[in-house]
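Forwarding the complex inputs:
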Amino acid sequence: MKYNFAEIEAKWQKYWAENQTFRAENNAGKPKYYVLDMFPYPSGAGLHVGHPLGYIASDIYARYKRHQGYNVLHPMGYDSFGLPAEQYAIQTGQHPAITTEANISRYREQLDRIGFSFDWGREVRTSDPKYYKWTQWIFIQLFNSWYNRDTDKAEDIESLVSIFEQQGNAEVNGVCDGDTPRFSAFDWKEMSESEQQAILLKYRLTYLAESEVNWCAALGTVLANDEVVNGVSERGGHPVVRKKMTQWSMRITAYAQRLLDGLDTIDWPQPLKDSQANWIGRSEGASVVFNTLPSPGNGNSYPIEVFTTRPDTIFGASFMTLAPEHELVLKITTPEQKPKVKAYIEASAMRSERDRMADVKSVTGAFTGAYAEHPFTKAPIPIWIGDYVLAGYGTGAVMSVPCGDQRDFDFAKYFDIPIPNIFHGADITEQAFVDKAQTQIANSDFLNGLSHKRALKKVIEVLEKMGQGKGKVNYRLRDAVFSRQRYWGEPFPVYYVGGMPRMIPGEHLPIKLPEVEKYLPTETGEPPLGNATEWAWDTLNSAVVSNHKIDHKTVFPLELNTMPGWAGSSQYFNRYMDPHNEAEIFSKEAIDYWQEVDLYIGGSEHATGHLLYSRFWQKFMFDKGLVPHDEFAKKLINQGMVTGMSAFIYRDEETGRVISKGLVGDKKMTPIHVDISLINSADELDINAFKKWQPDYGDTEFVLENGKYIVGREIEKMSKSKYNVVSPDSICEQYGADSLRLYEMFLGPLEQSKPWNTAGITGVHGFLKKLWRLYFDEKGMQVTRSEPSKESLKTLHKTIKKVADDIEHFSFNTTVSSFMICVNELTFQNCHSRAILEPLVVMVSPYAPHIAEELWAQLGHTDSISTVPFPVFDAKYLVESSKEYPISFNGKMRFTLELPSDMGKEDIEAMVLAHEKTQKQLEGRTPKKVIVVTGKIVNIVS
RNA sequence: GCCUUGGUGGCGGAAUUGGUAGACGCGCUGGAUUCAAAAUCCAGUGUUUUCGGACGUGUGGGUUCGAUUCCCACCCAAGGUACCA
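Prediction (whole assembly, two chains):
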């Protein structure tokens, strides 16, 4: 009987679907285990072999856990809102929902072919109103909450209102906007409804605020940083300017410290934690207030607050620098300097934030003509603006200490500003002195002679006493903008009364995305939802109604923005626990049972996006008492990228001939991508097939080496345009899903990126055939009830140990090797014993589930192999009577010697020294020292 | 610049607490089988060699009886990033 993978795989995929083999119950009397993959965006291109890498790894682990007796939750879904479908809609008029649906079916077909053990009964799609109902619901919960620093958690907004009613906001220690005014209970009661709402917005965890965006007027939309290249839009090359727009924001900064602290409690890769920690960017220092001096143009004095991590260097401050966007800039600039300053502000508005930050070399800035008073020396110090200071970080203003900060130093040198030295013994002629450990402060009045640490403490004390500053912790993390001017996203459950946002009551959710004629922004520059004609909220009937009914009395306009891509992915892992619940986001029972994700596998590119936002929402949900853990995933693994092996032919532009790689030499030739399906495993090009694919080359002369055309190979990202994409379908077709699964794992360590080379798959495919032949010969089943040999038992148990250890360490590539070694050995031993071959098939099952199910059934079992207990390792089969000792001389192994395992050190030493090969190696020298590590090695030093 | 990860045969990679470097697979070479091919099987495959051996894990040092593994300095590649006060 031959190994017919096509038949076997179709059969078992059908069996699993029909029997719902992998359905997870919410209360099975077993311990739970939750294995999660990052759900994909269903793109039009379909899956390539890089995509399923992580899914295969998680599937192996999920199946392994089932063999260990766990009730495993292993769901899959789609992150199905997104830009490509919308772009396609703009071009073709096709509704994104239709495109998305088609793409999802294609993804599903491809996924099904690989034999994943997903519980498809729990599938979620972020673009499904039944799902985004709960995304909207969470938004409302955030809106109705504020962050209380005293209790260090989110609380209901009602509690804030009652504090305001009783005592105003003076005593409230809540996270709020920087410009929140102080008011008393009396003031609060005097405010109009609208004014009160405006105040509350400053405290809500999701709020409306002006944020800076990259506005592209020609496209009528806001662009992401990476869509802006050199100040113009990537698509079309239209001008882009920084502009303030009213947008929804998430007050993630309220959670900065907890997001940082939480990293210590989760088993995530260190590089990923590092990048989150850097993103949050905690720095300790002080905020210091400098007052401006009245100037010819402006008789007032304004306080300018700066944040500095080096308040100890305050006596070295010889100027101040404000971000060009700083609100005081135009107020304090002298008439004389106005033209220069205005020009500079305009110029920097043209540059994207990324451009401003990437440009390290050029120093730019402008003098405002104004001065501030140094808090201690009372000296006037000039106020400059410079775009190396970012409006969004700290207070958008810095005290510049050129002797202690390289950027300030460069700025001062460039504009010829004095550089006072306040460090004892430091040379600052060429560069700033930044070594904190070596710092001894000088020329600084009461700080003279102090170290960095002591000066820091002292100066903060004095500043606090003067009321001109205080110690402060600053975070780089900014609140996350939550509005998008797009069509294909979650609509907000928000309508506007007198310009103030109101939430639609939860019982009327979901608010479904309206139909529009065009998916582009409106002519007046409003988001695509501005094209909808049925987009108003009728408060009497609690329904979405036609726009012409808007009367601002009972019918109000709805929000025109939609939510960003990360909205739908920030809680999906909890929704999987109870995906069909229409009354709650998930039942208490479900969350109490599943608790949290035990293992999450996905790409590291989500480090500071999805993974940070999800942690934020989880902490919020925890504060609200909805989830039992404030971290959603205990363990996380990043899978690496699978890169493609592009193939090139080389065209000699002078002669027009195409030269085989070995004959190219030093001559400059044009490399041209060729489709990798035309290349065999020896890098030879099928010239006829190539000419058929590219008829233009029909008459081209191919210069061969040894009668063959050899292509060049290079590793690149897999992409259609590079003709190096390998689809899993074609692999499944040719070798089967089991071969694909094994090969993806065999490629190398899960976390590392590695190139795909289809040629190598014959190795694992050959292994599966060889495995099959242990069970079947030409005549049929050849498994016997005979007693297994000692060697076979040893082979089996050696493999059990290795495989179990490797799976726990997610070292799936080495597991595949040990399977190969095991099958090679059993074949050599001519082993057909059921006592060996039954446990073997269970071990293989997580990796190659189809062949395992088939062999299991052929062995006479009637149930699926999926929950059969994993074989248990027994050390007694590995006991050896002798050990082959490596004998090394000065650390280099020269020969091996077989000795009894229980032989003692002295006996070993005597045996080894007496050996003729030892005498030969020593060449008459006396050994200085003999090291014997029993069971390991012998080393002779001479 | 900074942070992170990595650098081992022709290629992917292995060596789990410092103990036989190159497991396993691909590719390649030779052979068996075949009319032939595919498939399968067997043997070989780091470099070098006077066939004794010598040298070999990016480079240079160090610790150690012994280093791919630990320490210091450097080079290169990939990914991330923030001129962050």
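The first strand of chain A starts at residue 32 and ends at 37.
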